[in-house]
Write a structure and sequence with these properties.
This protein has helices at residues 20-23, 100-110, 123-134, 150-153, 155-167, 214-219, and strands at residues 2-5, 42-45, 48-53, 58-63, 66-71, 75-77, 81-83, 94-95, 115-119, 138-142, 171-173, 178-182, 189-192, 197-199, 202-205, 209-211, 229-230, 242-244, 249-250. The chain folds into 2 domains: 2-81 and 210-250, FAD/NAD(P)-binding domain; 85-207, FAD/NAD(P)-binding domain (3-Layer(bba) Sandwich). The protein has 6 helices and 19 strands. Strand 9 (115-119), helix 3 (123-134) and strand 10 (138-142) form a beta-alpha-beta unit. Residues 4-7, 14-15, 17-18, 48-49, 78-81, 97-98, 124, 212, 215, 246-248 line the site of flavin-adenine dinucleotide (FAD).
Length: 252
């Protein structure tokens, strides 16, 4: 078995990135590593799978401009998700949070005691808000719905979360849309749809993630839909040795 990973880092606990890794400058990537892989599994890091030649059963790979192929009998596509971004110009100082590299960059910016604005009060946005308050930072959380996570968890949980954020000193701007960012060389604020500008030294955009399905969709592997690999049994193609897994897979 060979595992190819596009990130240069060995597997790590992604959930820590918005929590302990953000609040503790002493934590290094090695401190959040997952357990070592079994000895008979080869792991190749910094290698991106770019395509699959079904006829010859070869996976196309690219590492730093060097292209090659790898023979496969069975293939699991577990390419996860990538953060959604806002369709607007984003000056330096506007972050997303998905990888340990993202977290290191954000943590470095937070060390300067900035005013932080977070766009999106989903799991990642809410956790970053909480971590920033733990660091004693001035935090504004902007959310398009009436309450954090209300669309998925309902109004009761949403109202409870409003209370929690406010009790911990986070300024909430609800039912609020973002129209853009101010600042050229460095972000200076977040412009709202009504024209108001909320001052910011650091912005974190936490507006969800979308399946990283390019490899699957390109090859129609695992009965790939347009947005993700469908995980429904019978819809995947075990006969052809391809399966979608994890954040990539969509259960109907
Ligand atoms: C900040 C943060 C906090 C989170 N906190 C929690 C939590 O508290 N609890 C919880 O349950 N979940 C949490 N999650 C969600 C959780 O991390 C995901 O559900 C989980 O990472 C999904 O795992 P996965 O293996 O499917 O995808 P991923 O973890 O996204 O892994 C996919 C990997 O595939 C690699 N890849 C992509 N394309 C290619 C390619 N073409 N070739 C080679 N490699 C490729 C990517 O680089 C990535 O390393 C959090 C996520 C984030 C970002």
């Amino acid at each position: 078995m060979t595992v190819f990973g596009a990130e240069p880092e060995a597997a790590y606990q992604r959930p820590a990135l918005s929590k302990s890794f953000l609040t503790s400058a002493a934590l290094q990537p090695d401190d959040i590593r997952l357990a070592a892989t079994a000895e008979d599994v080869r792991v190749e890091l910094g290698v991106r799978a770019t395509g699959l030649d079904l006829a010859s059963r070869r996976l196309r790979l690219s590492d730093g401009g060097r292209d090659r192929t790898h023979a496969v009998d069975g293939l699991v596509i577990a390419t996860g998700a990538i953060p959604r971004t806002l369709p607007m110009r984003t000056p330096p100082g506007v972050h997303v949070l998905r990888t340990v590299a993202d977290a290191i960059a954000l943590r470095a910016d937070l060390a300067h005691k900035p005013r932080v604005v977070i766009v999106g009060a989903g799991f990642v946005g809410s956790e970053v808000a909480s971590s920033c308050r733990t660091l004693g930072l001035d935090v504004t959380l902007i959310e398009a719905s009436a309450a954090p996570m209300e669309p998925v968890l309902g109004p009761e949980v949403g109202t409870a979360l409003v209370g929690l954020h406010r009790d911990h000193g986070t300024l909430l701007r609800l039912r609020t849309q973002v129209a853009g960012f101010t600042g050229r060389d460095r972000v200076t604020g977040v412009r709202l749809a009504d024209g108001e500008v909320v001052p910011a030294d650091v912005v974190v955009v936490g507006v969800g993630a979308r399946p990283s399905h390019r490899l699957a969709a390109r090859q129609r592997a695992g009965a790939a839909g347009r947005r993700a690999v469908r995980a429904r049994p019978g819809r995947s193609r075990p006969d052809r040795g391809r399966r979608g897994r994890g954040a990539l897979a969509a259960s109907p």
